[in-house]
Amino acid sequence: MTLLLTISRGAIARNMLQNAFYDSVKRRFEKVVIVTPAAHDARFREAFGAPNVEMVSMPVEQDTFWDTLVTRLYKFLIFNESTVGRGLYWYIEISGRLAWIFKLVKFTAIRMVFQPLSHVSWARRALQRLDYLFLQKQAVAHYKQLFEKYQPSVVFATNIIEEEAIIKAARRQQIPVFAMPKTWDNPSKRYFRAKADKVFVWSPYMKEQMMRLQDYRDTEVEVMGIPQFDYYTDRSRHESREDFCLRVGLNPKKKIICFGSEGKVMLSDVPIAEMLSDFVDKRMLCQDCQLFIRPHFGYKNDEKKFGSLAGKPGVVIDTYNHPSKGFRDEWDYSTGHMNHFLSVVRHADVLVNTGSTLTLDAAALGTPTVLITFDGYEKKPFHASSARWYVCDYYTELMRYRPALVARDPESLRETINTLLRESNRLADSQKAVCARLCFKLDGKSGERYADAVACGAQAHYGK
Questions:
Q1: Interatomic CA distance for residues 57 and 74, integer angstroms
Q2: Nearest 10 degrees: Cα torsion 163, 164, 167, 171
Q3: CB-CB contact of 110 with 88 (8 Å)
């Protein structure tokens, strides 16, 4: 049997190749063909090469006018809270009140058309059918050639929102095709351009979304858990607090306040980090603390924006990152980077972030968390505030379980941190509940579940 597997991002290499999934499929398939932009990258080949593994280049797809048009339509044909966030708030810097009013009027007109239309499922399915018949022909033809060469028993697309062409090609060739959203926000971002035979998702919540927003039936969606969380349960990876602090320059006797950056999109990161530094420096917290700043390594040079705090006593900026040049996200997929991140979250006494997936990581590891919904000492209108990033369905779902305390101004930030320093188990029950809802099982076996499902699908096809 042959498995054809896509790995289009460094983050996906971390998620799918650094756990039991990859070890299992290498044993269970005679051949594994990895389709990836890093096919000729020496670091990737050294890390994941094996005698029965072949790596081939992923084609670079050029969107046509029609590709761009249908993709934009897909974004509105599953109208939800994330649609509102994306259309009105995210990635948008409004220059003034008049510009904001114009934006609001424009979006309201779009909403009047597409919100009712989003309830007409046959409309988006019809567009998907036209897409399947007439678009991405060059990319589909390329993948059909790959299928003819390697004769895969099954195709596994690990980034469904960007790999529709390979799904279309597999459907045309009647090869079983499985797929997965690469992260928890994908099902609500837009209607997917192609439909897989079966989709694997992190959680019960994502399964509900796939059925409600993406028109999958119950039997076509399997809940698997989060594969990159498997290593959280592996105690052999657990570094002691003393060793971690010695390695990164922290004091193991002081409490660690970890601040997680959200990259260039979050303009409030720097003022919040400076505020936290002041709390530490002026001893405004109930215990002796230090600040550890975790840049968002998915954004190039994110650590440089914290230059005002570099070298300041009581502040350490994380620099453990070795970008993977073979992928456009340059995510460090090394075992060392994964173990380091595990230590960062495990040993933080309080984790502070703004609308990040870090909240899920912290919940999985039982780390007390504070969520920021303000912009430092400057008061901004909602459409320009960091609070606008919480306008999305998946974070709304997370907040139903209250797995974090919320800071709405500088004083409440200080108070919430102090509360969690005094009561480290205050959020434990809420974090367990949110993990059951959004992470499924934290048993270290998600990778095995993915491998079992893919192998079973291949065996069923192979046995025909």
A1: 28
A2: -170
A3: no
Q: What is the pLDDT of residue 457?
A: 81
Task: Please provide residue 297's backbone torsions phi and psi, each rounded to the nearest 5 degrees.
Answer: -75, -5
Tokens 């994502």 belong to: 206
**Are 178 and 27 spatial neighbours (Cβ–Cβ below 8 Å)?**
no
How does residue 300 score in pLDDT terms, banded at 50, 70 and 90?
confident
Within 8 A by CB and 6+ apart from 53, the residues are: 26, 31, 32, 33, 34
Helix then strand then coil, % of the chain, to nearest 5: 50, 10, 35
Question: Which of 302-307's residues contact partners 24+ apart within 8 Å by CB, and which partners?
Answer: 302/261, 302/263, 302/264, 305/261, 305/264, 305/269, 305/270, 306/261, 306/269, 306/270, 306/273
Neighbours of 148 (CB within 10 A): 9
Of the candidates 208, 207, 192, the one whose C-alpha atom is nearest the C-alpha of residue 160 is 192
If you average pLDDT over every residue of the chain, what do you get? 93
The predicted pLDDT at position 130 comes to 95
Angle, CA of 107, 109 and 111, to the nearest 5°? 70
Q: What sign has the CA pseudo-torsion 365, 367, 373, 374?
A: negative
Cα separation of 223 and 437, whole Å? 11
- pLDDT surpasses 80 at 461: no
- What local confidence, expressed as pLDDT, does residue 100 receive? 79
Q: How far is CA 230 from CA 48, 82, 257, 398, 444, in A?
A: 18, 28, 25, 20, 4
**Model confidence over 64-106: pLDDT tens digits?**
999 999 999 999 999 999 998 888 887 766 667 787 788 888 8
Structure-block tokens of residue 314: 């009581």
Alpha helices in 284-375 (DSSP H): 335-347, 358-365
Nearest to 184 by CA among 207, 163, 166: 207
Instruction: Summarize the confidence of residues 1-17 as an average pLDDT.
Output: 95
Report how far residue 234's alpha carbon sits from residue 444's, in angstroms, rounded to the nearest whole number: 7
- Amino acid letter, residue 178: F
The pLDDT tens digits for 243-279 are 999 999 999 999 999 999 998 888 899 999 999 999 9
Q: Give pTM, 2 decimals.
A: 0.93
**DSSP code string of 242-297:** HHHHHHHT--TTSEEEEEE--GGG-TTHHHHHHHHHHHHHTT-SSS-EEEEEE--T
CB neighbourhood size of 443 (10 A) = 12
For 236, other C-beta atoms within 10 Å of its C-beta total 6
Residue 93: its pLDDT value, please? 67
What are the pLDDT digits (tens) for 429-459?
Answer: 999 999 999 999 999 999 999 999 999 887 7
Distance CA 15, CA 226 (A): 8
Distance between alpha carbon 251 and the CA centroid of its chain, in Å?
31
